Amino acid sequence: MNDVLRKLEIFKEIRLYKAKLHALDYMDIKNANALARGVELPYDPVEIDALKQPIRDKINALRAELEARSNDDIQRY
User: Fold this and answer.
1) Which pTM value belongs to this model?
2) Mean of the per-residue pLDDT values of the chain
């Protein structure tokens, strides 16, 4: 795959994973609201974290790939 196209694909993937994290943030917000009101948490915080961590790991891996590709570009010139 063309390097420029791969970089664009990486940016697209990062945006998709960030959207997934945003959806899970909603669960954290609902838990914070419940905690503030002193009622039972609607979502298991440990489960939320378990769902978020693989997404964060994927974003970090994609960012590392992007950085490596950018460094390769710099070294070529």
Assistant:
1) 0.80
2) 92
